[in-house]
Amino acid sequence: MSARPAVLVVAPGDQTYRGYCLEQAAAAYDILLLTDTAPTWEKPFIVDHAIVDLHNTEALVVAGRDLADRHPVAGALTWSEWHLVPTARLATALGLPTSNVVAMEAARNKARARTAFAEHGVPSASAMKATTLLEAGLATMTIGYPVVLKPAAFAGSIGVIRVDRAEDLPAAFEFASAGASQSHEDTSVLIEQYLDGPEVSVECVTFHGDTHVVAVTRKRLAAEPFFEEIGHTVDAADPLLPVVAPIASAAIKALGITDGVQHVEMRLVDGHPHLIEVNGRIGGDLIGYLVHLATGLDLPRIAADIACGTRPALTPTRQQAAGIRMIHPAASGTVSEQKISAPFAVQTPWLRRLQWTSRIGDPLLLPPEGDLFTTRGGYYIVTGHETAEVDQRLDAVADETTLTVGAA
Q1: What gap in Å lies between CA 275 and CA 383, rounded to an integer?
Q2: pTM exceeds 0.90, yes or no
Q3: Domain end position, chosen among 286, 319, 352
Q4: Would residue 115 count as lying in a domain?
Q5: Of 319, 353, 368, which residue is a domain's last?
Q6: Is residue 25 part of a domain?
Q7: Per-residue pLDDT of the chain (408 residues; tens, 9 = 90+)
Q8: Residue 115 is inside which H or E element, if any?
Q9: Domain annotation covers residue 262
Q10: Burial tier of 46 (Cβ tally within 10 Å: 0-12, 13-18, 19+)
């Protein structure tokens, strides 16, 4: 019997973007994996697993109990947006520490979250829910153009689009509805006020209702009307930290979240933070890994600590900056060439990682035909002393990297 505590991890995700999460959590905990496919890359990091329909809460609880019968389980967690509510229900059923299910449901549903923000005086965008084009049109008459349409309960900027004119609303509503239709929780569309300003996310840790902000992530977005995230930068000494921390903490409290790691998205309108949404898990796109490179803090390990009822250590062990940029084609098509200058890659120690996620012959589709899962040919990560240096280095890698596509 292992002397280490065991934690249930629901939905490990893919190795490319979530592999570091499992690795960091496994450094301190025995991992009991709940997954819907047979483990492959996960095997070195787990001690046991169960294959189960992750969207069937009853089956998930049964599988979790079976693992708990074989191991002394101390906690349960997920870093998957789509499995936050089932995981909270699992933890509740097994008597494990967790934020309550209602709070996680509010975080998952953007319409409910907007209502909670308004009730608690958290600066946010005005918004209305719509299930038909008529309702969407009525909402725009109240809110006023420009507006943003998005699925009420999805993720990854899928189905999110800006609309400036009434004549563009029907196509935009169809686009947002297509994204919303993929949700297992709510297939309606949210019509909300467009927040004009730079977008950031705030990486937070909450333990027993006390929120601590550990980092600010500056975001790089593709051209509107879509809101695809194509890059992120984390600086341990970001001057925005004291500006955004109170608003992020207030938003988490408004939703009733008491424990876990949160990824809080907001825009700075005339320098003032306005909430976009609260995600009750570690940010995607390797943001947690950037936080580790910049501050030394391991968010997956911290999330596991909290899931087991242990107060996490939050003292940074380094102070630098790190950034990631996605490698995108200029237009949709089939990959015909992808490479980086070999001498540059070998002689550049601050290029911490470059990974191709596409292969020659793969199709890459940009919005509106494609989405998060079809647009990226790869990514690279760099480090530096501060944000300006990281941005320069990200640009330098871009100059040495080639991704060519031909006609689809």
Answers
A1: 28
A2: yes
A3: 319
A4: no
A5: 319
A6: yes
A7: 678 999 999 999 999 999 999 999 999 999 999 999 999 999 999 999 999 999 899 999 999 999 999 999 999 999 999 999 999 999 999 999 999 999 999 998 888 898 999 999 999 988 888 899 999 899 899 999 999 998 877 666 778 899 999 999 999 899 888 878 777 777 788 899 999 999 999 999 999 999 999 999 999 998 888 888 999 999 999 999 999 999 999 999 999 999 999 999 999 999 999 999 999 999 999 999 999 999 999 999 999 999 999 999 999 999 999 999 999 998 899 999 999 998 998 899 999 999 999 999 999 998 888 777 888 999 999 999 999 999 999 999 999 999 999 876
A8: helix 110-119
A9: yes
A10: middle
222, amino acid identity? A
For residue 83, the enclosing domain spans: 6-98
Q: 225 with 259, same domain?
A: yes
184 and 136 belong to one structural domain: yes
One domain, residues 167 and 205: no
Chain-centroid distance of CA 404 in Å reads 28
Task: Tell me how crowded residue 79 is: count the other CB atoms within 10 A of its CB.
Answer: 28
- My answer on whether 285 and 325 are in the same domain is no
- Domain tally for the chain? 4
Axis crossing angle, helix 84-93 with helix 101-108, rounded to the nearest 10: 180
Helix (H) or strand (E) holding 84: helix 84-93
- DSSP string computed for 335-364: EEEEEE-HHHHHT-TTEEEEEE---TT-EE
| Token pair for 305 | 């600590």
Rounded distance, CA 138 to CA 405, Å?
42
In a domain, 119, yes or no: no
- Distance (Å, whole) CA 58 – CA 256: 24
